[in-house]
């Protein structure tokens, strides 16, 4: 390897403090999955927190982050034979929004007791991009939360008022925010905050998907979709 390559790798290193445990890795590793929380975080799409030593701080499970980081490095999930914290690791993968890792962990639909049911929240991001702008410009982007859990929609309406100026629209079973043009960074920040808020209400990410399509000659549309679920107790009429 050339000396210049080593120099570039050394300059590319990042130290993270995850729940009190320090990890050192490369910036490219943290950005391996651009649509993940870490990918957005290290693109500068939303504010970061640092500890007293200047390391990036993430208030999550420190020991389990070793498996998150190894997956980012190799795109393979390797766990000890006697590993007993799969459910906790799945929650960490949900938090970091690393779709391939969630799939590796086999996040299948559980069997619930007969006196419970599953509540679902759908979060979608639709982004229209100009094909001919260099760099690519965001024409308009929209975030939509859809659910029959009225209390969640009411909470979003009450707790996300700082984004009201972005044309917040509340309807039956739905709240949407429209940004544009060129408000991509604010949309990413809102998305991260929404995922955190929905997760704090007891929902976990079931699956994610991305869809690319062209509607017009000068536009591309990119859709991201997240499905959250939680178990709720049935109430007798």
From TrEMBL:
Q: Which InterPro entries match?
A: BTB/POZ_dom, SKP1/BTB/POZ_sf, T1-type_BTB
Q: Which Pfam families match?
A: BTB_2
Would you tell me the protein name for this molecule?
BTB domain-containing protein
Its GO biological process annotations read:
protein homooligomerization
Matching entries from PANTHER family are given as:
BTB_POZ DOMAIN-CONTAINING PROTEIN KCTD6, POTASSIUM CHANNEL TETRAMERIZATION DOMAIN-CONTAINING
The organism of origin for this protein: Cirrhinus molitorella
Going by the entry's taxonomy, the superkingdom of the source organism is recorded as: Eukaryota
The BTB domain covers 12-113
């Amino acid at each position: 390897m050339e000396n210049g390559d080593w120099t570039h790798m050394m300059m590319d290193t990042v130290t993270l403090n995850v729940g009190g445990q320090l990890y050192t890795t490369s910036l490219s590793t943290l950005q391996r999955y651009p649509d993940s929380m870490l990918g957005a975080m290290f693109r500068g799409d939303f504010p970061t927190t640092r500890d007293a030593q200047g390391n990036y701080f993430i208030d999550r499970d420190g020991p389990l982050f070793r498996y998150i980081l190894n997956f980012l490095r190799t795109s393979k999930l390797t766990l000890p034979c006697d590993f007993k914290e799969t459910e906790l690791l799945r929650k960490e993968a949900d938090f970091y929004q690393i779709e391939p890792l969630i799939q590796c962990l086999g996040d299948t639909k559980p069997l619930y007791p007969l006196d419970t049911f599953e509540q679902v929240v759908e979060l979608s991001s639709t982004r229209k991009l100009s094909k001919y702008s260099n760099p690519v410009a965001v024409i308009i982007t929209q975030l939509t939360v859809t659910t029959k859990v009225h209390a969640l929609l009411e909470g979003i309406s009450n707790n996300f008022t700082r984004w009201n100026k972005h044309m917040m629209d509340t309807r039956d079973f739905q709240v949407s925010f429209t940004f544009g043009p060129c408000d991509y960074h604010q949309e990413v920040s809102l998305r991260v905050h929404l995922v955190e808020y929905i997760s704090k209400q007891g929902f976990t990410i079931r699956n994610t998907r991305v869809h690319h399509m062209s509607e017009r000659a000068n536009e591309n549309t990119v859709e991201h979709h997240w499905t959250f679920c939680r178990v709720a107790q049935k109430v007798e009429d």
